[in-house]
Amino acid sequence: MDQAHISGTAVIITGGLIHESHAKTAHGLLRSSKRFKILGIIDDKNAGLDASYFVEDTPEGIPVVQSIDVFISTYGMPEFAIIGMATKGGLLPKELYESIQNVLKNGVHLVNGLHEPLNDLDELQPFLGGAAKIFDIRKPKPFKDLHFWQGKIAQITALKIAVLGMDCAVGKRTTSRFLEEQLNMQGYLAEMIYTGQTGWMQGADYGLLFDATPNDFIPGELEHALYSCWKEKEVDILIVEGQSSLRNPSGPCGSEFIISCDLDGVVLQHVPSRKKYSGFDQYHTYIPDVLDEVDLIKHLGTQVLGITLNGEGTEAKQLTKYRDALARKTSIPVVIPMIENMDPIISNILNQ
Hints:
Elements: E1 8-13, H1 24-31, E2 36-42, E3 64-65, H2 68-75, E4 80-83, H3 97-105, E5 109-112, E6 134-136, E7 159-165, H4 172-185, E8 190-193, H5 197-202, H6 218-233, E9 237-241, H7 254-260, E10 265-270, H8 290-299, E11 304-309, H9 316-329, E12 334-335, H10 343-350
Parallel strand pairs: 1-2, 1-4, 2-3, 4-5, 5-6, 7-9, 7-10, 8-9, 10-11, 11-12
């Protein structure tokens, strides 16, 4: 089985983190996946509850259980187990070795989106060679399949919109999905271009694994994905899933998306409760004011067509109050996508 044909029933391993943003891969797959049918969650610290208890907008009936053995004995054999959380340094924590070994011992394939290639781990070698395989998906394409930027982006007649963030892990992919789905419901052919492993796992057809692609090829791979999708599917609107942010010092890649994709506009995702970049509370830099970021995006050559808010760490009433105050300061539509439809932003996009 090659990577392109990976699909089927799956459980997700969250290592005790299903309730945290570090499990955003799991959260995305629970909400939507064309590639996998999610049957359950393996999380020993939160076993006994339903996944919908932890992840908003998730259908009920997906159990959280202690181990793969418990899942198989209770619900049957899944085809795949997916590592569904981010870890420090992109490494598999040693406390999860036994859980992964048990997955492989049971003949269940493992899908790994961590930076660390698990096929190389000595501790897992005794469990390979049988029925189960490890698919390390976060790795570069073969050199012959990579593309340099050529300028073909100028031929695309579809609207090109990116969902960028004020920081990493703010919900860019989820908002991209909402935008794609709501545009399609309104009769427009829209397609999300994935740029991370979760978008691929959810079944998007076009994209790249941004942080597994050599930097010289990122502009070309972005262009190739957009051009191929437009040419082959004749879409009206291309939605690019952003990565990290414009000014997060650990990943200031937003300008690359704006310039290489020749964007017609940006939807900017913001977490009002965050003051410092995620994981860098001790670093001197603060997240800028959202309207300052709007100005920066304008200087980079495009416009913000909508601002979307993530309510992490904010009560609903406070978030609504913030939204209303921000809307009064700007003519840009402001939406909370988890609780509101995106019609005001969609209208603004379609008026371009």
